[in-house]
Fold this protein.
Amino acid sequence: MKRKYAKIFLGVLFSASLLFASCSSDDDANTGNFPLSADIFNSVKGKRVAFQGLTHNAISWSWDFGDGSTSSEQNPVHTYTDPGYYTAVLTATDATGASVNKEVKLALDITPYVLLTGGATAAEGKTWRLASSHSDKDYFAYSDAQLSPFEGAPNPLPAGIFGAGLGMPEVYDDEYTFYFDGSFTMDLKEDGAAFSGLLYQFVTSGGANILNDGGSDFGLCTASFTPESDLTFSYVENEDFQMSSVFGENGTLTYNDVSTIDFDGSAFVGFLDFESKVIIQDISDSSMRLVMFLAASQDFIGVNTNALVLTFEVVE
């Protein structure tokens, strides 16, 4: 009787061992069928980024953080020196030498200055031009404390007004490039004409440089202009900007807590007049709205009377 039970037990044990061996073999075979793959998970705090290389069948990992730094860890932590836009790339390699790449785009500690210039990794800088579509906040203004709308001008400005309305479509073509290191370039295209103030041109060149006076009713024109080389700009995020204005006491007016762009020499952005410093009302990754000042009174030469509140767009 005991022998009978022993035979039954051995039979069951043998069957179980076959079943276990079969399952184990299937698992190994299925594991070997998974291809080499890679993905990235990351978490960000300021300019410090923790990366995770989520890989299968990889035996080595190579990271390029996009700022000149690298790592061979699977899950590195990297601190970037400058705010800006970066592309981090993971290369995972398996035992056969095959490799796959995965990348992740990062926007780190983005400040208005980075939005203006494209950040430290934007070797070509960031280029802007006047948006022909305009926005519902674009208008002609007085250079008073409230930047009140100019009487008799459309508010907001309709799309393409400088072209279809005033016959100066060329002002939408000019491009202005800001670089992270503070340098600046201007491309006034084939006509070499700057969008400018009519009175400014008469005062500085006797009107000889004027090429198109289609906007004369609003004190506007285009005029020939040759940019200097090695131009620079300065950006201040918050300041009290004091400038000349016929609306200010003793001919000056202060705009408090505003962000500004100023230029060296004869450089300007968007509009050439006596005052080259502009106010940034709003800026995003793809557009910015500037306040540019205009002196249009022959009774107060060089003193601001008006302003142009206009939207600029990024040139892709």
